[in-house]
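QUALITY CONTROL LOG
STEP: pairwise intake check
CHECKER ROLE: data steward
CRITERIA: each record must contain a sequence immediately followed by its structure tokens, with no blank fields

ENTRY 1 OF 2
RESULT FIELD BELOW
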Amino acid sequence: MRKESLRFLGAFIALVAVCACLFISCGPNVNYIKRVQSLEENVSSPTTIEELTDAIEKYQDRVEDIIQADAQTGIWWKILATRYMDQNMYGKALEAFRKAVAYYPANQNLYYWIGVCAGYMSKSSLDFDAVGENPKHKEYLALSESAYKRALELEPTYARALYGLGVLYAFELDQGDKAIPLLEKLLTIDTKNIDAMFVLARAYYMNYDFQAAVDVYDNIIKLSSSDTNKAEAEANKKVVLNALYSE
């Protein structure tokens, strides 16, 4: 019995040595790996209808497991990103959303939040070396713009993305002309969006369309139930009227 055990042990050591040679000295042996995988599922070289059907079912189970694991991983990245946002940790949130979008590349919500986080990060990207330029600031703004655009490609009537991109153009990129069509479209979807009206009025003002800006402020005064909003609209309207009559 002891001699047989020793012989078995010797054979086992020899087998390990061969495997080590394959993986270390000679590099990974793809065919060997494939054979091990096939043996693991017991579907080596299926030929009959029954064997082929059995092989498909076994590998299908494995594929489903992988898909479910990937889906869950993507969800966890989204949850982690929102937790970071709750703590105003926009850089961390941006990285987590970047990971999540790798799992869900057609999810418009992820691109919207990437746009939001990148916008916040642009504000924190200062010229710390005082060299007179800040490329990181521009990079974050460009990322924010492209993310909002991608969200709108996936869902053209996505109200939050229309608003976010409109704000970006009107307040950060000084491109009021690009903000106008976005905000006008948004207000056909959400006709009482006071925040969007304020941004649209600003964009009209930036574009020297003073009468259109006045009309929007009048609409805010008419629709808003907030005294603060009414007062702000009245004050802004006076500024625009002064510009209009001084032309």
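ENTRY 2 OF 2
RESULT FIELD BELOW
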Amino acid sequence: MKQVNGEKLLASLGDGVKDIRGRITPDAPMDRVTWFHAGGLAELMFQPHDEDDLISFLKLLPQEVPLTVVGVGSNILVRDGGIPGVVLRLSAKGFGSVELAGANRIRAGAICPDKYVAAMAMDNGIGGFHFYYGIPGSIGGAARMNAGANGAETRERVIEVNAVDRKGNRHVLSNADMGYDYRLSSAPADLIFTSVLFEGYPEDRAKIRADMDAVRNHRETVQPIREKTGGSTFKNPPGHSAWTLIDEAGCRGLVIGGAQMSSLHCNFMINNGQATGYDLEYLGEQVRREVFERSGIKLEWEIKRLGVFMPGREVRPFQGVTTD
């Protein structure tokens, strides 16, 4: 694991950090905050107390210092060399609320778990959110990547997204501003989402409960939810299911080091206990290679890979016949 110098970075921010109310941790182990339980150190981790505290910190942070935003750690793979600069991890106290915001509307903080929004909607007879019950992760990430499941997507429910930029300025983005497409948005990458306003429609609570139960039962039956996994590893190519392509390429259960493609659902990569970030990323790239050689289709990562490689432990991305 690369030893970064978080204390030096913290000192460079000056005396203004004394007024910051959130938690600042130099050399923070990322394997403790990601669902893969692997990877190196964050040079500096900041957990703001609330939005005002976040803005105060951003105004102290030089623009040249890298800033990486993570949610609950469900959809990220951290490389073993760690993450340079500041890792921003929003706190549940300041960014985890979920509340009604008018007729059939729900506002949720960016770190609020997706399933809490589904539960709030069910309790109040608001339809259109049952699919969130089966998505691991938080609302900020769901809004950023247009998370979806069971034929539904986040973009169908978003009214507006509140955000803060690197300079500490507040922004409100409409659904159109988000520029949604399959598993992505075109919102500026430097915007930090703080909350999302959703709108559903009236629906019978018993119907919503039945839909949520179906989502839960399906997930428990076909996904390795009790393993150390980040969720779906690859996006579904147009007209195909990623898991089918992986299975047909003979990669179900494939193992490299401590990393494995799940035998239960082969588009889920799991840490069998001692996997490194290198093991996980190498396995993913090997699967991409095998799938391309079998089908001619190049899978795209859905898991986000963050940070830098350990020297001598770099993973070369599979290029296929085109560039990534």
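INTAKE CHECK: passed for both entries
DESCRIPTIVE NOTE, ENTRY 2: The chain has a mean pLDDT of 95.
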